[in-house]
Amino acid sequence: MTQIVQYGQVNTTALIVPDLIVQIIAPQVAQLNGVPTNVAGFVGTAQWGPVNSPTIVGSMADYARNFGAIQNRLYDMGTAVAAAVLQGANNFRCVRVTDGTDTAASIIALATCITFTSKYTGTLGNNAQVQVAPGSQANTQKAIVSMPGQTPEVFDNIQGSGNALWVNMANAINNGQVGARGPSQLIVATAGAGTTAPAAATYSLTGGTDGVTTITSAILLGQDTIPRKGMYALRGTGASVAALVDVSDTTTFANQVAYGQSEGTYMVGVTPAGDTITNAVSTKATAGIDNYSFKYLFGDWVYFNDPVNGGVRLISPQGYAVGVIANLGPQHSSLNKQLYGVVGTQKSFQNQQYSSAELQTLAQAGIDLITNPIPAGNQFGFRIGHNSSSDPTRNGDNYTRMTNYLAATTAAGMGIYDGRLQSSQPTDPLRRNVKATLDNFYLGLQQQNMIDDFTVQCDLNNNPLARIAQGYLQADVRVRYLAVAEKILINQEGGQSVTITRQQLQSF
Length: 508
Hints:
Helix content is 23%, strand content 19%. The chain has a seven-stranded mixed β-sheet with strand order 4-5-3-13-14-15-19, with helices on both faces. Strands 10-9-8-12 form a four-stranded antiparallel β-sheet, covered by helices on one side. 40% of the residues are buried. It is built from eleven helices and 23 strands. The chain has helices at 60-67, 77-85, 163-175, 217-221, 253-263, 277-286, 318-327, 356-365, 397-413, 429-447, 465-469; strands spanning 3-6, 21-24, 40-44, 55-57, 92-96, 106-109, 114-118, 129-134, 141-146, 153-158, 187-191, 201-204, 241-244, 266-270, 294-297, 302-305, 312-315, 344-345, 367-368, 370-371, 381-382, 451-457, 476-481. By secondary structure, the protein is an alpha/beta fold. Helix 1 runs antiparallel to helix 2. The protein is flat and about 100 Å long. It folds into three domains: 40-99 and 216-398, 3-Layer(aba) Sandwich (Rossmann fold), CATH 3.40.50; 106-204, Immunoglobulin-like (Sandwich), CATH 2.60.40; 424-508, no CATH class.
């Protein structure tokens, strides 16, 4: 009998009976697809939503549905997301943290009949309501769950009388109704022992709290053991740039650097609001963050026009940095890119500008900042475009981003070759395929003007027989990044005695 199988599923040395076997062979040269570099991670507080659970957010409307409105307070995650969205960022992983005192809003309906409790803790739950009313069919009831900014949830035609009605209503809300709708995303219901018949009424939930009274930098940093909390909850989310919102505590920086290197994430930190250059430089020197995985921003905080709470208020520059970096290709730098939504900075509000000496001091220390003007003109933007490394070959934003991008892409796509057979022959197909995959990927980057040049070696010269016998296969890749033009020199000679010479080119 003819068989159609995937290649490798049949042990051909064990075939005895005559037969026809068609083996489907996948393309032997894999193609590498670059990993996304626009995923931005934020860790902070919110008025609703899951705690220590990374949540996908693509816009401010998404944020409001998942976490509520932005709040005028320190460590507010929504504020940082809003600043990043203004720069064009649209792919976030948000982690809400609390101090442990957060509570969920609730209401007990009709004494002991049923309790409605907000699905998540937070003050947004205090705006939730449950309307109990007659159902569309005779002798049934319905529950309508509503919350501002959310689509109302209708659980209709709930049957039963006495306590059975409340049990059925709780089951409908918690488990959904087959063929009608899924479970509630806003509340959970718990049936009591009560038997009181329902009357048309609306029940408002109360008592929800955010758990933000005693938030500390340690809470945002979190723990790296299961269940992961805070920053460590971002592990595996693919966030290529991230920030612990408003955290200026240097005791967290070494952990942020270690996390950034382990996950390939560009971490963005900040010095305290109103900081001095002298203090920032001194702090940075002792913080243990001379590393390309960390971007350190000077504490010249930004005045932001709050569209929700009204008025202009001071916020950390982290959101702007994360937003502009996430919105740029990994080969680019944040240097000299216009920022949007900046009303001013603490410096500009004093009608002051940075001197060349001040900028040089910050640049030498590996500290970036927002200024106006920038070389492009009278607009706000990042003035240095560097990470916190003192190594001039690795201190550009583009070095961090490209290095992480290339490493993550290779790690995500090259595992397909693990477990395959390798021979000691010069024409070994495995080494040839590995090289072809890498060549194709880097050539594509070069053609897209993302890298300058590259070489890939994977042959017997770097895979001696002894290493092959031990199970190793090695590919050596060298990639030259595109250089960021940071210092533009224009030599201008002028005067009445200047001689101008032009050469007439012959046309053919």
